[in-house]
Each structure stands twice: as C-alpha cells, then as structure tokens.
Amino acid sequence: MLQPHSLLQYCGYGVWNVHRKNGTVRPAAEWVIVENAQPAIITDEDALRITARRRSDQRKRFDAGYGKSRTSKYLLTGGTFKCARCGANMTGLTTASGSYYVCGSLPYRRGMGCGPGVYVPQRQVEAEVMEGAKALLGVCSDRKGFTRQVNEELRRMWEQRTGSDPQAGRKINAIDAKTQNILKAIEEGLVETAWANGRLRELKAEREALAAATQVSGNPPQIDDKTALAYLLDLERVLKQGDVAERKRVVRTCVQEMKLAPDSLEVEITYRLPEPVMNGVVAGAR
Q1: Is residue 59 part of a domain?
Q2: Number of H helices, E strands in the chain
C-alpha cells in the first residue's frame, strides 16, 4: 500500500505500466503518469514524508542487524546487487567450484520468472566494487570541494524539509507583476472576466505559498573541512581494515545501483557520493 506507485495514486495521479508480466516492478522512468486522474486523498508532501519515513525505517532495520544479509560473507547481498532481467536480488551461492552471486530466482524459484542463471564470481565482482569505492574517495580527496558538495546537499535537504525557498522573493515579485498586468487588462476590457478571476485566484494561492516559504526561520546544517576529512579518513579505514558488516555498510552507501544483465553477461555499477555524510554529520552540523 505504501509503494511509490500506490502513493502517486493516493495523490490523484493515474499510474500505468508499473509491473512487468512476471510481476516485478518496472523502473519509475517507464511508468505512465497522468495528473488529476482522480480525487486526491493525500498531498504530494504527505507522500514525500511517507517515503522518507519508510527509507529511514529500512535503514534502521539494516543497522540493527535485520536479516541474515548483514552478517553474510557476501558484501553485495540484501538488495545492493540486482538482476536486470527480472528485478530480483542477487544472492550468494557456494558451490564445489567456488562462491558466486546468482539471481535469487535460481535457488528459490528454480529460475521461474527469469531465465537461465548466470554465476558471477564473488571475489571478482566484489574486488571491482571495492576498487570503484576507493576511486570515489579519490574524487572526494579535494576536501574543500567535497565539503562544498556536502553542504549544498544539506542545504537542499533542509529547504525540502522546511519548505524554505531562497528564490521566494523573486518569484513573489514576478507574481505581483503578472497580477498587475491582468488587472490592467480587465480594466481595459482586453480579457474575459471569468478567466481573469480564475487566474488571479491561482496567482494569489501561489503567492501565499511563497510568502510562507519566506517565514522559515533558522539556517541549514553545515559541516566544516575538519568534519569532512574525518569522515573520509574513516571510510578509507573501513575499506582497508573493516569487518564484513562495516564494509557492507560502505558498499550500500557508495553504490547507487548495481545490476547484472544476464543476456550480455555485463555488470553495471553506478556510484554516488557517500550518503552517510548526510545522515552521520547532519546531527552535529551547525
């Protein structure tokens, strides 16, 4: 009930093309979404809050040791590594010839819903991921640049959470100008009164929302160079000396998406700036 495609429908959107024939969910970019398809029972902001809370709860369950994947010797289990063909999680499998990652449909559903299994060597793919994570830290080695990027993201998150809009004043001025133009056009008989009144109501509502955004007090949390450096050094330590649980946490935060394409026998890995910066330092940032 709380999946993104369901929340969109609660917000009044029509959503189609969500599921494949085998029941797995397509990427959101492939969904067909239509505005004002039915009366909304929650707002877009409610949906965002629900999604943020669910993600927070999921992370807490992982950090508390939820599920056997946390203590598994396989670094990429638990949803980090997925099968691009059916969307299932890749799971660890130990055989007489070695340790591998395979699509979860193979051991649990005998391949039903996917296709012929592909055995990805554990050591090879994990080494590739760890090298990518180290390269990412190399990109972040510019401490000042890294700190700036983190602070920009912290500001964006704060503005989204509080409803603050740094451009609110400029937008209000633009709305006032539009309002004056419509009033002048009404006075000169250049527009229909019914349309003009409707448009004025819309502009008034926009202005009130923007005015509320200018009333937000406080400042976004920020970190300094010292905090950023400490975090980067800790990440580097974990990559070199951390236990399985610590390294798994780093992988989860540095890898945005990782998929196996069984037909082409390719593994695609997309990295991102480490997310724990936002979670780990935001509490102490000022």
Answers
A1: yes
A2: 10, 8
Domain that holds residue 201: 165-213
User: What pTM, to 2 d.p., does this model score?
Assistant: 0.44
**pLDDT of 256-276, one tens digit each?**
788 888 888 888 888 776 544
The residue from 213, 235, 269 where one domain ends is 213
Residue 192 in domain:
yes
CA distance 259 to 17: 21
Which parts of the chain are beta strand (E)? Answer: 14-16, 32-34, 82-83, 90-95, 98-103, 120-121, 255-261, 266-271
Round to whole Å and give the CA distance between 268 and 261.
Answer: 8
Burial class, 96, CB count within 10 angstroms (exposed 0-12 / middle 13-18 / buried 19+)? exposed
Is the separation of the CB atoms in 282 and 231 below 8 Å? no
Q: What is the pLDDT of residue 100?
A: 93
In a domain, 82, yes or no: no
